């Protein structure tokens, strides 16, 4: 994890300096971009995590996130003063993996960066469901549906992989928050619904009548795909 490359997109110099200092203390390599244009031009240098402020002088953070998602599944943490739940859900809907509201604790931000780095690493066996309809390949972070590859964000992949490893088990939203963040964070559970909705749109033939992820009312979710028997 040490030496991972983090891109911090933030126009407020003070915040950028603090975030940079905390990340460097953990042994990360940090590049700061003060404009959206700069961020998009340095992205091709290759980064492990992007920390993205939404209020930038030139390009909206949301637009940058969407541009990144066109050809990359690099983890993105949005950093913003927008604290409304709808903004959070919108941020996750356009492919952000996590969302930190200003003012924030730099230590919490570092914890979230580490959680993201941990979750994008870690191999495992293929999981095959419903007679090969859905295949999850954790070593390559690939999902195929009906033999066609699907693009999931790292967060969506992590959630799906977690629940698919234990078909039939009910997961509470708070447990799933822990899966994606590495720790419990109350108030975050509605965002799980947004992630699940995205995953359903990708893997379900009919999201309203799911064959894979069932809602357990008042509690959370469970995976109901039929595991492949050898
Ligand atoms: Ca800003």
Structure description:
The protein contains eight helices and twelve strands. It folds into two domains: 5-120, Rossmann fold, CATH 3.40.50.2300; 127-223, Arc Repressor Mutant, subunit A (Orthogonal Bundle). The mean pLDDT is 87. It has helices spanning 13-25, 36-42, 61-71, 85-93, 106-119, 154-164, 173-181, 189-203; strands at residues 5-9, 29-33, 49-53, 76-80, 98-101, 127-129, 134-137, 142-145, 148-150, 170-172, 213-216, 220-223. With 230 residues, it is an alpha/beta fold. The structure holds calcium ion.
Q: Topology of this protein?
A:
Elements: E1 5-9, H1 13-25, E2 29-33, H2 36-42, E3 49-53, H3 61-71, E4 76-80, H4 85-93, E5 98-101, H5 106-119, E6 127-129, E7 134-137, E8 142-145, E9 148-150, H6 154-164, E10 170-172, H7 173-181, H8 189-203, E11 213-216, E12 220-223
Parallel strand pairs: 1-2, 1-3, 3-4, 4-5
Antiparallel strand pairs: 6-7, 7-8, 8-9, 10-12, 11-12
Helix pairs in contact: 1-5, 4-8, 6-8, 7-8
Bound molecules: calcium ion.
What distinguishing features does this structure have?
Rossmann fold, four-stranded antiparallel sheet, 39% helix, 230 residues, 2 domains, 21% strand, Arc Repressor Mutant, subunit A, alpha/beta, binds calcium ion, five-stranded parallel sheet
Please describe the biggest sheet, giving its number of strands, its sense, and whether it closes into a barrel.
5 strands, parallel
CATH superfamily of the largest domain: Response regulator
Instruction: Report helical residue fraction.
Output: 25-40%
Along the chain, the helix and strand elements come as EHEHEHEHEHEEEEHEHHEE
- Number of distinct helices: 8
Oligomeric description of these chains: single chain
């Amino acid at each position: 994890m040490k030496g991972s490359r983090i891109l911090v997109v933030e126009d407020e110099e003070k915040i950028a300096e603090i975030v940079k200092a905390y990340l460097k203390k953990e042994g990360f390599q940090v590049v700061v971009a003060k404009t959206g244009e700069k961020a998009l031009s340095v992205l091709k240098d290759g980064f492990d995590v992007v920390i993205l402020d939404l209020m930038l002088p030139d390009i909206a953070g949301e637009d940058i996130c969407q541009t990144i998602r066109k050809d990359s599944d690099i983890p993105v943490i949005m950093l913003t003063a927008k604290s409304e739940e709808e903004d959070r859900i919108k941020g996750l809907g356009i492919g952000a993996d996590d969302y930190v509201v200003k003012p924030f604790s730099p230590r919490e931000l570092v914890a979230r960066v580490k959680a993201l780095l941990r979750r994008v690493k870690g191999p495992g066996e293929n999981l095959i469901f419903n007679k090969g309809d859905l295949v999850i390949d954790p070593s390559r972070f690939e999902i195929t549906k009906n033999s066609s590859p699907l693009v999931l964000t790292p967060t969506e992949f992590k959630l799906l992989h977690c629940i698919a490893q234990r078909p039939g088990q009910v997961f509470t939203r708070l447990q799933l928050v822990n899966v994606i963040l590495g720790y419990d964070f109350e108030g975050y559970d509605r965002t799980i619904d947004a992630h699940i909705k995205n995953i359903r749109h990708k893997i379900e033939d009919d999201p309203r009548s799911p064959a894979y992820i069932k809602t357990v009312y008042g509690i959370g979710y469970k995976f109901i795909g039929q595991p492949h028997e050898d």
